[in-house]
Amino acid sequence: MSSRPELQAPPEIFYDDDEARKYTSSSRIIKIQSELTERALEILALPKDGVPRLLLDIGCGSGLSGETLTDNGHQWIGLDISDSMLNVALEREVEGDVLLADMGEGLGFRSGVIDGAISISAIQVDFLLFHYLFFLSSFICCKMFNH
Q: Is 44 within a domain?
């Protein structure tokens, strides 16, 4: 079986209490999350006027990327589908507000409330899973029709 979480089980199942803690304590993951969040902030191109922005962290997990948002002077709201990851965020006393939500079901924020959004891991997982399934279905079709 693949070691990639997105190929083993949905995140709300894969990231149980043990996996959530293991993920959050990995120095490699912490470094990657921090670097990717810094890059996401560059891409957002928020005004450099010293005013904190309210950012949405979609798939915030245990709040690793949110810590980088806080370190850059921003406020944030994080959402994740894994209750275990959010519990780790609460145990770590992250500065942002976190909520249990599925990004695929809409978020219900009024227009203009959020200044920007990032998603360091969640969209990556969906993107990789889509491409894996596309490749797999293409392979199966080729085998069925002897191509």
A: yes
